[in-house]
Specification:
With 460 residues, the protein is α/β, with parallel strands linked by helices. Helices cover 34% and strands 21% of the residues. It folds into 3 domains: 11-94, NAD(P)-binding Rossmann-like Domain (Rossmann fold, 3-Layer(aba) Sandwich); 101-307, UDP-N-acetylmuramoyl-L-alanine:D-glutamate ligase (3-Layer(aba) Sandwich), CATH 3.40.1190.10; 317-454, Protein-Tyrosine Phosphatase, Chain A (Alpha-Beta Complex).
Length: 460
């Protein structure tokens, strides 16, 4: 439930005019604030409509006086709390919060907050589907793509808000209080923003900060870093694990997903109900199952939701088979650990497309899995030289200047029955607007290749 909070007649500056910033600005205006939406870009899309709704729009550099005179500053996830102008305003006593913190103060109902390095979106989406299949009112939003601020007005005391929260969002929370926190895994990521793994881990661990012994935390008992992050948390534990023994939570045996409660065990569903490839996606299913069981959803409803779930776009998404080579889009694999898990999801004959903008991690961690499974790798983007230096002596390496070139080169390297997987291990921002644009480019290139091969095929 939200906290007592008002912005009536206050001047609130929202920094960042992306999806979450615009949603925050509109929410604030509807609650009686005088709102300025500021973005450093030269132009802001939809400015006329925003002004028509009473929101002042300001593009370009942020004037010092604008922030210093605000009653409240709300930052979008893409705006670091350490941004100099924001830091100076905060030092002068201006409160600074993030968009998720703002929205949570007005939400009605309970919050399930999902964080971790990889698998947040799958876990968030599937959890909401399980809850709805079980007859509960549930929404999915946050970092997933639907700004939490846009869900506030429709929230009710009975709504369960399943919220994907990134480290960027968690570093600017104050009162954000999940009923259930979910920590799916932890490995180095976003070090270009956070500066060190310790800072990144601290931001992620903030998901536990405001929980009490009346709340729950669903944590990955197979991940030592998650266990360490949760060590001082006050919420009750409900684990999930594929390999580690657990006392209370969700695990697997040879054939079934199992709920473990002290000495009692009950099957939830057959493992073959899960249609997603890879052990890491099975772990996400276990996490979503754990939340749903805590919320009172029956196993039959959980199984129905799982059987109907084919996965998310750009998350090990099977795109096409062209000339006996399967093409898979895992553009969401934006760090080294995620790329490794993607490669491990398949047997031999894998050709990963790697590269983009480097954001931390050691590409050397891919050496053994590539040596065991890969027929070659294709490199794109700014990090190509760094990746080649780390991997060039263990696997054939080719370079590509575009996604279309990368797809064609990878297809030529893959053996019959092989797999070409876009698993970049990097962010997309050197070549694309975001990971989704990168994934769409990959799929378009695969479609073009398929069309070309069909045109070249002999006719009878």
């Amino acid at each position: 439930m939200g906290v007592a909070f008002t912005v009536v007649d206050q001047h609130v500056v929202v920094i960042g005019a992306g999806r979450s910033g615009v949603a925050a600005a509109r929410l604030l205006r509807s609650r009686g604030a005088r709102v300025t939406l500021a973005d450093s870009a030269a132009t802001i899309d939809g400015s006329d409509a925003l002004r028509a709704d009473g929101i002042e729009v300001q593009s370009g550099p942020h004037p010092e006086g604008l922030l210093a005179s605000a009653d409240l500053i709300v930052i979008s996830p893409g705006v670091p709390t350490s941004t100099p102008a924001v830091a100076r305003a905060r030092d002068r006593g201006v409160p600074v919060i993030g968009e998720v913190e703002l929205a949570a103060r007005w939400l009605r109902g309970r919050v399930v907050a999902v964080t971790g390095t990889k698998g947040k979106s799958t876990t968030t989406t599937l959890t909401a589907r399980m809850l709805r299949e079980g007859g509960l009112a549930a929404t999915a939003g946050g970092n997933l793509g639907v700004a939490l601020s846009s869900l506030v007005d429709d929230s009710t005391p009975d709504t369960i808000h399943v919220v994907e929260v990134s480290s960027f969002q968690l570093e600017s929370i104050e009162t954000f209080h999940p009923w259930i926190s979910v920590f799916v895994n932890l490995s180095p990521d976003h070090l270009d923003r956070h500066g060190s793994f310790d800072e990144y881990r601290a931001a992620k661990s903030a998901v536990f900060r405001n929980q009490t012994p009346a709340d729950w935390m669903v944590i990955n008992a197979d991940d030592p870093m998650v266990l360490e992050a949760a060590r001082t948390a006050r919420a009750r534990r409900f684990d999930f694990a594929l390999d580690s023994p657990i006392e209370q939570g969700v695990t697997v045996d040879r054939t079934h997903v199992i709920e473990q409660r002290a000495a009692a065990r009950r099957p939830v569903m057959p493992i073959d109900a899960v249609r997603l490839p890879g052990r890491h996606l099975l772990a996400d299913v276990l996490a979503a199952t754990a939340v749903s069981l805590l919320a009172g959803v029956e196993p039959a409803a959980i199984e129905r939701a799982v059987r109907a779930f084919d996965g998310l776009e750009h998350a090990l998404e099977r795109v096409a088979v062209v000339d006996d080579v399967t093409f898979v889009d895992d553009s969401k694999a934006t760090n080294v650990v995620a790329a490794r898990r993607a490669i491990e999801s398949f047997g031999g004959g894998v050709v990963p497309i790697l590269g983009g903008r480097y954001k931390g991690g050691a590409f050397e961690d891919l050496r053994d899995v590539l040596q065991a499974r890969a027929a070659g790798v294709v490199l794109i983007g700014e990090a190509a030289d760094r990746i080649a230096a780390a991997l060039g002596d263990v696997v054939p390496v080719a370079r590509a200047a575009s996604m279309e070139d990368a797809v064609r080169t990878a297809a030529s390297m893959a053996p019959p029955g092989g797999i070409v997987v876009l698993a970049p291990a990097c962010s997309s921002f050197d070549m694309f607007a975001d990971y989704a644009a990168r994934g769409r480019s990959f799929k378009a290139a695969v479609a073009s290749l398929a069309d070309e091969r069909r045109a070249d095929a002999p006719t009878g």
